[in-house]
User: Fold these one by one.
Assistant:
Number 1:
Amino acid sequence: MSSGETTSVRVDSWAWSVRLFKTRAAAAAACRAGHVRVNGVSAKPAQPVQMDDEVRVRVAGTERIVVVARLIRKRVGAAEAGLCVIDRTPPPPPREELIALPRRDRGSGRPTKHERRELNRLRGFNDD
């Protein structure tokens, strides 16, 4: 490393810089809400990240797992941001493997007792 480079960067700044979040404020809010973990530990916005740290981020209901490949402080272009992370997020399951949940039509009201018992039977719940 040259003398101008640092050995750590704030996790909220780094996550915003590599485009995991649209704004730095959103990255800081996600840290405060407990949606960002560094090496398995919940991270505060000012927690430093270093090279080879594993960062887990929950965004829009999915968890992204990335490893810090390069430290940056400022937001850069998408191509350069891609070089700063190693994405270890597992691929999503195929649509065929997703469990088809029974859906009710919108506005159809509450399920009747018979429909509720059918739903519980399909979900594997016991009536005991």
Number 2:
Amino acid sequence: MSMKRTNVYADPEDLAIIKEAAKRRGISEAEIIRQGIHLAAMANRVWDEPLFSRTFEGAGRTLGKSEVRDTVADAVRRETEAGTTA
């Protein structure tokens, strides 16, 4: 993978922590910073698909634990039955 050089300003205390962590882990400070950049990029990414693609009909109120379990079980049962008859 090709890399692109960039310059950033960082808090001296953060850099000291990174320096200590790099020494302790036996990796470069740059690698820790690259990992941090990757985490920041992923945290701010806009995904093409929603995290939850299933929707369930509900009562318009917060359900109790047993109601949630029953609703999910019913949905799974319906999906399984639809898959076996196809």
Number 3:
Amino acid sequence: MTTQAKRPKSQAGSERRFHNAQGAEVKTRDEAFAAQRDLSAEAVSTDAKLELHNGAVTFAIEVQYNPNTYPHVVTGGKISSGICGAPWDLTGGFIGETIRLDAKRTGQGSCATTITIVGEFQNPSAYRGTYGFDGASSSFKHTTRYQC
């Protein structure tokens, strides 16, 4: 024998309310899930500041990513200091349970032309992994943390 608690009926009966992605109330479920044509660029891009640490070296990284994906797809950003030939433009990657950042040197100098940073998430909010230059990704160890 099983018992079930009866769900209390609301005063509105079976009336349902729907909201779209912006939080505005709409009349139907279809309107709630309809593609929004008036989305701003902020809706598909946000940013985070990271610091990569490798002993005495610290890279300042600004990552732009799509918060509507998971893992979050990197859509741009830059490594602005701490690395030879800075700045470096982020050209791709993702942030999730693991991280991968790919960048291309845009600054002056005789340094490598690309960098790849990889790592695994750890608490408190950081990634531990490796990075390398010109196609390598395991040359140097790092800890990359979110900058508060």
